[in-house]
Specification:
- There is one protein chain.
- It is built from 9 helices and 15 strands.
- By secondary structure, the protein is an alpha/beta fold.
- The N and C termini lie close together (about 5 Å).
- It binds NADPH dihydro-nicotinamide-adenine-dinucleotide phosphate (NDP).
Length: about 325
């Protein structure tokens, strides 16, 4: 009878160390782009109100895991998060179930952290002004993670609902709420798009030369304008353009995969990242199963070391 370790939200919150997660994600991206992982595109079942996606991955060194994630965008009105998830970890030598972990918190943290890994590789080293568009769960995750990659002196936060921007800005001493997405973006060195918008949240003309733009949102429609993704775009995987949503990105449908560079290639030094101080770099995320497997491994190892969690005999 397998012994499965069950780890809830509070366990993950206590055990998932952002400083350890950033290099773990970078390594997962490198392994993915080197062809060392196995991770098929996300599949999903749809209801009238949302979807349930399945994201299995094998990452050598991190292990074998699957995330089941539901996305119900109207859940906030019910007092629930829009994304809720479970991650099951299996022994990669025997296939025996090892752990069942709250995937909601992991999804929250790993998405902002993965965007920060990409921005660390692509943004100008002297970037000092950060704009966060969208003050939901991902806005908060980005605020936490981007603090680790540059010494941002001015952090502007804008959200559709002004009170949400103010509440998020109150969490950080150098953050301030601004009235519009345009006000946040103009003059920013790094722009994080973290909204559930169905149409673009910024215009390319608002961006200064040399800016870096990351976009993790837009699960139900493009978050970036078409002219911004007309050139080079950095992605977790080329499948972001080759697959329809919910595996691929709305923003990249019809984009030539030759325009895409995987962030794992940049991190491994097998493809160039930013090529000049004036280049606008764009990172479009769909989320990827290797990120969840890497994060789940950190949580499981930390739980075992701390003796945390409940054991269930299947
Ligand atoms: P939340 O529901 O917590 O927040 C949604 C945010 O989007 C809020 O700031 C909300 O503004 C804003 N928003 C919603 N609709 C619009 C609109 N029409 N125009 C402008 N802003 C809008 O969601 P999350 O933060 O968890 O997720 C944000 C996005 O990121 C979603 O699309 C989600 O699917 C995606 N995501 C992507 C992941 C990835 O790996 N790439 C992983 C997890 C999430 P307000 O509340 O202020 O009105």
């Amino acid at each position: 009878m397998p012994e499965v370790l069950v780890l809830g939200h509070d366990d993950v919150a206590a055990l998932l160390d952002l400083d350890a997660l950033l290099p773990a994600l970078a390594e997962a991206f490198r392994q993915f782009s080197a062809g060392a992982t196995s991770a098929p595109p996300r599949t999903a079942a749809f209801t009238a109100d949302g979807l349930l996606g399945s994201m299995p991955a094998f990452v050598p060194g991190a292990g074998l895991a699957v995330k089941l994630v539901s996305v119900f965008p109207d859940n906030h009105a019910r007092g629930l998060p829009s994304h809720q998830a479970l991650i099951a970890v299996f022994d990669d030598a025997t296939g025996t179930p090892l752990a069942l972990i709250d995937g909601t918190r992991i999804t929250t943290v790993r998405t902002g952290a993965a965007a920060a890994v990409a921005a660390d590789a692509l943004a100008r080293p002297d970037a000092r002004v950060l704009a966060i568009l969208g003050a939901g769960v991902q806005g908060g995750s980005h605020l936490d993670a981007f603090d680790r990659i540059r010494d941002f002196a001015d952090i502007r936060i804008a959200s559709r609902t002004a009170e949400n921007a103010a509440a998020l800005a109150a969490r950080h001493p150098r953050a301030r709420a601004v009235d519009s997405f345009e006000e946040a973006v103009r003059g920013a060195d790094v722009v994080c798009c973290c909204t559930d918008a169905r149409s673009p949240v910024l215009r390319t003309s608002w961006l200064d030369p040399g800016a870096h733009v990351g976009s993790v949102g837009g699960s139900f429609g493009p978050e970036l304008p078409a002219d911004l993704v007309a050139g080079r775009v950095f992605v977790e995987w080329r499948g972001a353009a080759l697959n329809p949503p919910p595996a691929g990105a709305h923003d990249l449908q019809g984009v030539d995969p030759a325009q895409l560079t995987e962030i794992g290639e940049v991190l491994a030094g097998t493809a160039p990242g930013r090529t000049s101080d004036g280049e606008i770099t764009v990172y479009k995320s769909t989320g990827h199963a290797v990120e969840d497997a890497a994060a789940a491994r950190l949580v499981l190892d930390a739980a075992r070391a701390a003796g945390r969690g409940s054991v269930v005999h299947l």
